[in-house]
């Protein structure tokens, strides 16, 4: 099986060791890093997302595939940087202040990275000013906010208010168990993602609108 | 309550708040309710500091019109076992906590706590500024698959101690003297409850303790997980037998497992995976309970879990909680129609993600009355909100909820 096919399958199967080995082999074959990402990793993670949407895959399978994709990206990232390749978009992501829950946020980050975005993950319990500083530093197109608790949802609004005050031309997308589309509209977010997969579609849509 | 659990329509819907760690009330709301009802002032007892759950004492139980009380394990989620209380100020709220609950405030204002109150151990949970709940700190050394030993994940599952048995017996005696239904939580039979996996009660947890690693392991290390569940199941049943020998049928139901299988929009695994990895152990535990006791088996799982209901029933669960009607595929009328004669819905009374914390009292009232109309006919319903009453919930909304239930029941309450 050609190495790119092996890599594609390894990501879908959540085989991170296989993904790393196939990535190395594809590079040795002379495949360009950007071509590996756009021609293999992005479609593989799209397929993982599709399987998640149709409930063939669940959280454990998504986490395994994300791990495999990351193993490949670890190898490819320095090569991408060296070529100056541009990502689909730049996203700064984090769970908002007061909230330590990160499984959902991590899945979204992985799906975005697998979707060709450059993702800066600030972790959990992130203050508004940290989002702003990172967005400025990374020249972010999108900030993605997550919250699991009803008591920390107001931190989303505070973050968006602070961002708007800062004047940064960045789009904000939000998600998390108690969060709704209505809440997103109410606090001035640019989009709401119900699932990790829909967050990718949303981010792509926002990038298209911006271009 | 017993009538409702037996799927016969009682004279009124039984009401639970505070009988388990998933049907409780945040300490700040307990304080607000005590104030509203004009009960004796003084600090609220936080009996479960992990979720900052306030103890519902007899006076508040009576004021709220609650029909159920709880029996809790001797130790908290942080391994605190002291029967004594001490004062603690929780961000402006005076509370009482177990005397061996220890905290340290970080320079940024975050609060750390320690397993068994041992400050020489690594902290096992953090309460960040802006939150009202602790969350576990994962203490996971890098997993070496060659060295993984299921025994490492079994440290917390051991034959029940005499001290624990005495505690349970004392607690049951105390509550049995009252005219309430009793829900008991003994611990030890939660298979892979993600809140327990990081073991915030252990000083040096070994094995797989990281949440992501655990979820991944349910797929990639299934043999390892089976080995843990197999042994845990044996120990759990032996412990239930020893507990039953002490207390008999003095409790109505037993909270057996809080493992969540649902997310807001989907599930954590397929039905096929559930049946392969969890079902056999649930069935063994529930079969033992039904064959040897008069207890009803209580299962908690948040999220979109309708797909598992046939399996829950076949595994022997009698009660499902919290009936998260806001999750995908959890439409209350449909649940009642399909499963109402076979599963007791303990929860589902009102949404705690939107309506109760953010709605108006009128919206709360309308939702509660609608849910009561759906779930009450034919019994099989214990009123509870969908999970614990969360911090920040307006007291007037909680009161609107209680008033609506009592109105439906035709009972006047102060």
Helix content of chain B: 25-40%
Please give the order of strands in the largest beta sheet of chain B.
Answer: 3-10-11-12-13-14-15
Class from helix and strand fractions of chain B: alpha/beta
Count of β-strands of chain A: 5
Which spans of chain B of ≥5 residues are poorly predicted at pLDDT below 50?
none
Name the pair of protein chains with the most residues at their interface, and give those residue counts.
Answer: A-B, 28 and 33 residues
Largest beta-sheet details of chain A: 5 strands, parallel
Number of strands of chain B: 15
Indicate the low-confidence ranges of chain A by residue numbers.
none
Give the overall average pLDDT of chain A: 95
Helix content of chain A: 55-70%
**Rg of chain B, nearest Å:** 20 Å
Tell me what portion of residues of chain A adopts beta-strand conformation.
5-15%
End-to-end CA span of chain B: 21 Å
Global geometry of chain B: globular
- C-alpha-based Rg of chain A, rounded: 17 Å
Q: How far is the N terminus from the C terminus of chain A?
A: 38 Å
Question: Could you explain the architecture of this structure?
Answer:
The complex is a heterodimer of chains A (211) and B (414). Chain A is α/β, with parallel strands linked by helices and 211 residues long. In chain A, 61% of the residues lie in helices and 10% in strands. Chain A contains 9 helices and 5 strands. Chain A starts with a helix and ends with a helix. In chain A, 55% of the residues are buried. The mean pLDDT of chain A is 95. In chain B, helix 4 (162-176) packs across helix 6 (222-247). Chain B has helices at 2-5, 27-36, 58-64, 162-176, 211-220, 222-247, 271-277, 279-292, 309-315, 332-339, 355-358, 361-375, 395-409, and strands at residues 44-48, 53-54, 68-71, 85-90, 93-98, 103-105, 111-113, 125-127, 135-136, 181-185, 253-257, 296-300, 319-321, 344-346, 381-382. Classes of the chains: A alpha/beta (211), B alpha/beta (414).
């Amino acid at each position: 099986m050609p190495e790119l096919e092996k890599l594609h399958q390894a990501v879908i199967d959540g085989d991170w060791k296989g993904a790393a080995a196939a990535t190395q082999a594809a590079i040795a074959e002379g495949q360009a890093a950007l071509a590996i990402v756009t021609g293999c990793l992005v479609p593989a993670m799209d397929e993982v997302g599709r399987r998640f949407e149709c409930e063939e895959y669940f959280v454990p399978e998504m986490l395994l595939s994300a791990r495999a994709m990351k193993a490949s990206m670890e190898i490819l990232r320095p090569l991408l940087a060296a070529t100056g390749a541009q990502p689909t978009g730049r996203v700064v992501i984090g769970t908002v202040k007061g909230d330590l829950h990160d499984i959902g946020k991590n899945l979204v980050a992985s799906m975005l990275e697998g979707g060709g975005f450059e993702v800066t993950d600030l972790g959990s319990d992130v203050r508004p000013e940290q989002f702003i500083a990172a967005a400025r530093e990374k020249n972010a197109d999108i900030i993605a906010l997550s919250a699991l608790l009803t008591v920390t949802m107001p931190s989303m609004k505070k973050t968006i208010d602070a961002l708007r005050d800062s004047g940064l031309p960045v789009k904000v997308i939000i998600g998390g168990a108690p969060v709704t589309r209505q809440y997103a509209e109410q606090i001035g977010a640019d989009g709401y993602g119900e699932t990790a997969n829909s967050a990718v579609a949303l981010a792509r849509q926002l990038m298209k609108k911006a271009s | 309550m017993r009538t409702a659990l037996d799927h016969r329509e009682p004279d009124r819907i039984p009401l639970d708040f505070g009988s388990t760690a998933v049907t409780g009330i945040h300490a700040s709301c307990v304080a607000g309710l005590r104030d509203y009802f004009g009960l004796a002032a003084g600090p609220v007892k936080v009996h479960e500091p992990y979720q900052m759950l306030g103890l519902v004492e007899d006076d508040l139980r009576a004021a709220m019109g609650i029909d159920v009380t709880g029996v809790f394990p001797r130790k908290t989620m942080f391994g605190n076992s002291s029967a004594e209380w001490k004062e603690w100020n929780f961000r402006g709220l005076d509370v009482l906590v177990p005397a061996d609950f220890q905290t340290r405030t970080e320079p940024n204002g975050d609060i750390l706590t320690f397993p068994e109150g041992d400050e020489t151990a690594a902290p096992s949970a953090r309460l960040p500024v802006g939150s009202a709940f602790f969350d576990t700190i994962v203490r996971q050394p890098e997993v070496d698959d060659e060295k993984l030993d299921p025994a490492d994940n079994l440290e917390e599952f051991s034959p029940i101690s005499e001290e624990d048995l005495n505690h349970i017996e004392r607690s049951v005696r105390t509550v049995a003297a009252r005219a309430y239904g009793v829900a008991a939580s003994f611990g030890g039979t939660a298979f892979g409850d993600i809140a327990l996996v990081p073991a915030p009660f252990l000083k040096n947890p070994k094995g797989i303790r990281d949440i992501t690693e655990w979820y991944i392991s349910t797929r990639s290390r299934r043999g390892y997980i089976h080995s843990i569940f197999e042994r845990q199941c044996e120990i759990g049943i032996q412990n239930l037998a020893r507990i039953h020998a002490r207390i008999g049928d003095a409790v109505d139901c037993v909270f057996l497992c809080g493992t969540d299988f649902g997310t807001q929009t989907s599930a954590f695994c397929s039905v096929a995976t559930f049946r392969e990895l969890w079902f056999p152990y649930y069935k063994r535990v529930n079969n033992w309970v039904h064959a040897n006791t008069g207890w009803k088996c209580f299962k908690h799982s948040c999220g979109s879990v309708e797909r598992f209901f046939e399996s829950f029933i076949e595994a022997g669960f009698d009660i499902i909680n919290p009936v998260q009607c806001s999750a995908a595929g959890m439409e209350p009328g449909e649940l009642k129609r399909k499963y109402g004669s076979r599963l007791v819905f303990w929860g589902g009374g009102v949404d705690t993600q939107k309506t109760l914390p953010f709605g108006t009292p009128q919206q709360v009232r309308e939702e509660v009355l609608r849910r009561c109309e759906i779930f009450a006919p034919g019994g099989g319903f214990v009123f509870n909100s969908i999970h614990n009453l969360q911090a920040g919930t307006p007291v007037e909304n909680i009161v609107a909820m209680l008033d609506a239930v009592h109105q439906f029941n035709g009972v006047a309450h102060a």
